[in-house]
Every structure is written in structure tokens, then in C-alpha cells.
Amino acid sequence: MTVKVGVIGTGSIGAEHVRRLAQQVSGAEVTAVFDVDRERAIEVGAPVGAAVHFAAHDVIDDPAVDAVLIASPGDLHAEQVLACLAAGKPVLCEKPLATTAESALKVVEAEAAHGRSLVRVGFMRRHDFGYRQVKAVLDGGGIGEPLLMHCVHRNASAPSWFTSEMSLTDSVVHEIDAARWLLGAEIVAATVVAVKSSPLAGGLRDPQIVILETAGGVVIEVESFVNCQYGYEVRCEVVGSTGTVSLDTPSTGAVTRSGGRTQPLPDDWRTRFGQAYLDELQAWVDGRPGGATAWDGYAATAVAEACLRSLATGARSTVALADAPTGSPQ
Ligand SMILES: NC(=O)c1ccc[n+]([C@@H]2O[C@H](COP(=O)([O-])OP(=O)(O)OC[C@H]3O[C@@H](n4cnc5c(N)ncnc54)[C@H](O)[C@@H]3O)[C@@H](O)[C@H]2O)c1
Ligand SMILES: O[C@H]1[C@H](O)[C@@H](O)[C@H](O)[C@@H](O)[C@H]1O
Predict the structure, then answer these.
(1) ipTM of the complex
(2) Where is each GFO/IDH/MocA-like oxidoreductase domain found (predicted)?
(3) Which of 137, 223, 250, 280 could form a disulfide with 127 if both were Cys (CB 3.0 to 4.6 A apart)?
């Protein structure tokens, strides 16, 4: 059976998802798209034969759409996911699920009322081969008891409209989700530590260091540097009671010759996580379990909110998650 997908938002990642769904994911086709930038929607949707609609709800209500992928700006996600749930359609929502914990919780509650899993959140690192290897070692007890975690998340440069807050809600939110998933624990507190800003960061607080704490006392230290200049780099290391496990930058194409060794770096998330996005889409279309749930999206947003409070005040900020509603897929 072919899953007919409607896509809302055909910007950078929306266009990539449309292309993957149409060309690389088996059992899927893109039947409808919408973007407020109509020319962009036509440019992306027409080559794959999708109907180009005039509103998001036209995509959601289209009888030729079985499932919806949302890749619009983050502040629209919760409302659009709620509309998909009202129509009873499965939805893959790009991160973040919502920009406030309150609106994310409404999504969790609306899904629970359906009593079945309809929402996936695009935390694609859960599908990345390297991250999955780290997870397998941790789950197998390969390093004993996890004690602390170091994370590095660097982008070569951020767009002009990027803010210090977005370094937390757009970038660090990936580490928040990855840490929760890898460690199997909720994060209970966040502290943003003031560090010296790069003179090339255009006035942003950049880099930033964030200290997260889990319920079981594991401390996660995250560096987010969105104007590091040199390329895209995502790394992490979990230190356990009997060893460590690390995710390094994939080292394909390293050149060793007289004078030294050079290793190419990905330009950005497109190249570094290309296979993870594809695996995420294929798993979603196949209806396979795994991937981030609405609850995961809610928890990540609640922790990101705590980061924002800490950024504003300089103080440690605690996270108080609501009780999961009955029937909510975890
Ligand atoms: N998982 C990842 O690694 C990853 C990577 C990139 C982006 N994202 C997320 O995907 C989302 C989109 O990011 P992007 O980089 O593609 O941004 P973008 O600005 O390139 O694209 C957003 C698109 O949404 C459109 N849009 C604006 N208002 C809309 C509306 N009301 N309805 C429909 N479309 C609307 C814009 O015209 C634009 O084309 C963000 O939430 C971002 O955090 C995730
Ligand atoms: O929206 C992007 C995307 O989520 C990338 O995966 C991340 O590395 C960037 O920092 C973020 O700005």
C-alpha cells in the first residue's frame, strides 16, 4: 500500500523531505503541499506531481492525503499537529513539537484522547547509525552505570535572524532529546553558563554551555556553537562506571599523506544526517515503532523552556513535567 503524504512547509528541510519521500522512500508518494510562499510550494511540489494547496488545512483535509509531514516554522507546529489529530491523521512533525511546554502538552493530551499513536517528532538522531550504536552499548550495560555526558553541537554559521535563544530551542533541543533517549531518564534541571562570546557571532551569546541534570543525577554538559566557522560537527561521549562510549564525526574520506592527515567535515545537517532523515521517513511510512513520540516532544520543549529561563536569569532552572495522561504513547 502506498502512503499518500501531504507536506506543510516546503522550505529547507521540507523540500528535502519531499524529495526523499518522492524518490527514495518506498511505499510513499507526496500528493499535496502547502507553503505560504506559493512560488516555493510550486517549485517543490510540481516536480513530484503534488497538488499545491492554498492553506494548511486544505492539505490536512485532502482525501488524497493519508498522513501529514509538518516542516513549517516551529511556532506553528502545535496548532498544525492539533489540526491533524482532529482529522485523525498520522503526523510527522519536525522539531520542535511546540515552542511552549503548555502547547506541547495539549498535543500529548489530544493524542491520548485518540488512544493510539499518531504523532512522531523529527528528532532524527534517534535514527542515526552512530547514535544507535551508542544506545546499544548503553542498553547492554557496556560501560557500567552512566555518570556523565559531554556533547558538542557546532554549526559553521547561523542565519542573520538566529538568536541566542534559538541556540537553545533549535540546536540544544537535539541534545536534550538525544540525552533523554540514550540515558532513558528525564531531565530535571538546566543551567546555561555564561562563556566568552565569539567576535564572529554577530552579537549572539555564542558559544553557549548548558548543564543538564537527569533525575538519577547524571550531568550532561552541552556546547552549542552556531558560528564556529569551520563546518558541522556533532559529537558526544558518555562516561560510565567501567568505560566510555563516544559518537565521533564520521571519518569517511580521511586523507593521510606526507605532512599529515586531513578529514573532511560535513557542511551542515543535510550531509551529516542525510541517511538518518531517510531512515526516519521510511520507518514512519512503514508504521514501525521507534522515533520520538509526542511525549518526547513535550519533554524536550519543557527542558528547552528551562534553558531559556536560565539564559535570562543566569540561575539553575528546574523542570516539572506533568503526569502523562492515561493512554498517552510513551
Ligand atoms: N531535524 C532537523 O535536523 C531539522 C533541520 C532543519 C530544520 N528543522 C526544523 O524544521 C522546521 C523548518 O525549518 P527550515 O530550516 O526548513 O526553515 P525554512 O525557513 O527554510 O522553511 C520554513 C518554510 O515554512 C514556510 N511557512 C511559513 N509560514 C507557514 C505557514 N503558516 N504554513 C506553511 N508554511 C509556512 C516558509 O515559507 C518556509 O518555506 C523548523 O522547525 C526547524 O527547526 C529540523
Ligand atoms: O534547525 C537546525 C537543525 O535542527 C540542525 O539539525 C541543527 O544542527 C541546527 O543547529 C538547527 O539550527
Answers:
(1) 0.99
(2) 131-245
(3) 280
